């Protein structure tokens, strides 16, 4: 069953209230809840935080919209709190990192398969193979410093294998920019671009905050290295968004993206308590959408329906994309970037080669951490070790 943005009204912003006990509820179980419940929590927290980021920037550039932005933003902040606090203290920071990479892989792979624009789908596949390698490197780190198996978090939905080597992902800024979608792009293309940008932004910010808290020097360096790649990913994905869209048009698209993703969560959530949160916040976001749609009509004299002529597209599927990822890995791991184009390794930009040659000249944390690491079921308990007698 599809959702129409204009037939469902949701709760008006003045009906959206919270208490502290409401916001800080019981966390999910690290091992008993399905991994895709955690995937949805991390993704939606990223989308709420991107809404906050966008709305703060918008307020700096438009005096007339400041009150509406402040009102909507207050609710978005409390929504983000309620969602993010669903991850409990039984997750170590490194285990949460594994979960972040699972989000990046599974959601990006699902989006790449349904993206109608072939060039933009290629951009998602390109970034996907880099996040896939990050998962492998962090899994090696988890094994080394906590003695844990990353598969406990991934629950066998996602492979732990090398992707495009992290050491080779560092590119000059001009090779991370992509061509934006046009004004006539399909609504799904716009929803995808905002969703993936939000997810990558959150991952970057998490690594920048958590990395310095590690005592292990290799861990500190690995977080610094992969945070740099995540910044590249934010540059890549945010450059897909059409810069000719007006501020109000982008705000309306942000609200539609939130509706779209909450709707997908409601359809697929297996934890009844978490599903109730998604249902509540879907109603909140519909209220935000209609509030901004009225501003759009008032200030731009345009019909919001021109951006969304029909029902919302089918939601992003929250399911293992293992077969697709393996296929992309086999066919595209050697692709590189040259300007806005994806090229064979031999045609890579010299600027990127020079850039990373210097960056890696004192060694590569991602190579150090994963040296000799091959994931195997059971980790060290299953390894055969020669014993001297």
Structural summary, described in words:
There is one protein chain. The protein is built from 13 helices and two strands; from the N terminus they run αααααααααααββαα. The chain is mainly α and 389 residues long. The chain has a two-stranded antiparallel ribbon. Helix 5 crosses helix 11 (322-332), helix 7 runs antiparallel to helix 8 (217-238) and helix 7 (187-210) crosses helix 9 (247-268). The chain starts with 19 loop residues before the first helix and ends in a 19-residue tail after the last helix.
What descriptors fit this protein?
mainly alpha; 13 helices
Strand content: under 5%
Query: SSE string, helix = H, strand = E?
Result: HHHHHHHHHHHEEHH
Quaternary structure classification: single chain
Indicate the mean pLDDT: 96
Structural class: mainly alpha
- Output the number of helix runs: 13
Share of helix, binned: 55-70%
Low-confidence stretches: none
What's the main sheet like?
2 strands, antiparallel
- Give me the Rg, rounded: 21 Å
Strand order of the largest sheet: 1-2
Terminal CA distance: 67 Å
Q: Which overall shape is indicated by the principal axes computed on the Cα atoms?
A: globular
Beta strands, count: 2
